[in-house]
Amino acid sequence: MAVKVILTAAVLTLLTQESLSQLDVCGQAKLNTRIVGGQNALEGFWPWQVSLQTTSGHFCGGSLINNQWVLTAAHCVPSGDLVGAKVLLGLQSLQGSNPNSVTRTVSKSINHPSYNSVTVENDIALLQLDTSVTFTDYISPVCLASTGSTFYSGVNTWVTGWGNIGSGNPLPSPQNLQEVQVPIVGNRQCKCSYGASSITDNMLCAGYLEGGKDSCQGDSGGPLVIKQNGRWIQAGVVSFGKGCAEPNFPGVYATVSQYQTWINTQITSNQPGFIVFTSTGTDSDLSVSCSDVPPIVTAATTTTTTTASTTTKPAVGICGYAPQNSRILGVSSVTTDGQWPWMASLQKNGQHVCGGTLVSFSAVLSNANCFSSSPVASDWTVVLGRLRQNGSNLFEVSLKVTNITLSNQTGSNVAVLQLSTAPVLNNYIQPICLDDGKTIQEGASCWATGWSSGQGGEEILMQQFQTSVLNCGNASTSGSICTDLFTLEQGDSGGPLMCKLDGYWYQTAVLSYVNSASRAKRATTTMVFDKLTNYQDFLLRTVGTFLTPTSTNTNTSTTNTTTAAASSAREGTPFSFSFHLLILSLCLLFFSQNS
């Protein structure tokens, strides 16, 4: 009896390790270190993407979820049987040479049993390959969103495929894999577009209400993915939409997290890696209402929890913390993603006008001169997490402005913009600390950042400028901070002058652009800025109590749980889980000997 128990435990351990192994490899795109401008995806950027083909060519997309299974849409399998169809993995273009591609044949296809071709409900299917594939830099599985995942409106996602680039407009030769970034559109807003009965909890919407970017015919079955903690997680399967990229009609996707149980029931060994994706803050979709969607009249919970335990915990470096800013290269150069995570691009009619900084969970600081022609909040949008003004930005979030307040003091003035929703804080979006009277020594190195006009190449990458604090001489040292001269253009106005103190970044002044003619007349080698302490009373009224590196984030947060066989995604989990099974087997052995 004891031998049987031990052997059983050993087998369970091995099976568990096999299941957990998908979490060791899924969602990692080794060649996707950054997203470049344009629509074409670079080779290896999306290594889980597959092309489903018949003798007539490509007809649908799909995603590799382990070494022998592909996830796609049920409407791509209209007869319920796709056995014999070809699955191409590691494919870059539908035409020409693909040296990293391999081909497999579908040996089994499984549509969701409740798929409805009329309502397109439960539009999800699984395809088994005739032989397993070997993972490479160009072929690897994606992680899947687990039960309990939350996708708040505005969270940015990516969708990929070889579909049409517009209604009736096929992808031109050589038909390279396409990528497009689209934000989540909440289901309430989506119901207002398609009708309340057309959108269910098993569906997820993503796109721009103004249109212009979307998935299209030929992309069906492909993945909608989102990045969390360095892992790519598939949130949706391309399902349907009204036309392609039409205004007010975002794309509709099957919500992967709703089908974890069904998927694991079909794939009993080497199960896919499931990860809970957690949105934080408040979902702006809760405030949406229309004729088909009445307003929520009961008290709404501002944070959705995804596990049984809800905690309130301090955030590491609640302000002035830039985890991606480990070192700064050069005296004046372009920046990299996340180097200055508080930087904001203030945009009017989709065009960058001024810089700004995130200074609280929902407020941005800028220069009052930026709003001399239009102080109307609805005219403005704040973009956080942006690196380049032209091209793709993987980590950016666009937020509406609900209010603009100007300081209206004598001399220079600042502005505070209130955001419609608090952004999700991550390595690429963080608030900066505000200087409340810190002593900055003469000779200290400080930095300014902005999108100088015409700098950073065609993409207009964010620029950084290093400068040194100087003695202000005749200027009032109590209300001013002086630095070496550095380049400052129109697009930099409103950005920060910031200095690092005790390991955290503090904004000590707001940049103000002075035209070149005025600068030439001054014939000076010193730049003078008004300290933020001049506006302290105004900032306390509009921003609230200043954040500090030791502030406690009172937003309710949830444990970020990664699940595959009820496990977490921490490094070393397979050993931990196996150890617990071993303890269990010893307990069983003990009871068997005493029974």
TrEMBL record:
Which superkingdom, per the lineage?
Eukaryota
InterPro entries from the entry?
Peptidase_S1_PA, Peptidase_S1_PA_chymotrypsin, Peptidase_S1A, Trypsin_dom, TRYPSIN_HIS, TRYPSIN_SER
Which residue ranges does UniProt annotate as crossing the membrane? none
Where would one find coiled-coil regions in this protein? none
**PROSITE patterns given in the database record:** TRYPSIN_DOM (PS50240), TRYPSIN_HIS (PS00134), TRYPSIN_SER (PS00135)
Q: Which species?
A: Oryzias javanicus (Javanese ricefish)
Any GO BP? proteolysis
Q: Which GO molecular function, any one, fits this protein according to its record? A: serine-type endopeptidase activity
Please give the name of this protein. Answer: Peptidase S1 domain-containing protein
Gene3D superfamilies (alphabetical): Trypsin-like serine proteases
**Keywords, sorted A to Z:** Disulfide bond, Glycoprotein, Hydrolase, Protease, Serine protease, Signal
Domain Peptidase S1 per the UniProt entry, residue ranges: 35-268, 328-544
Signal peptide limits = 1-21
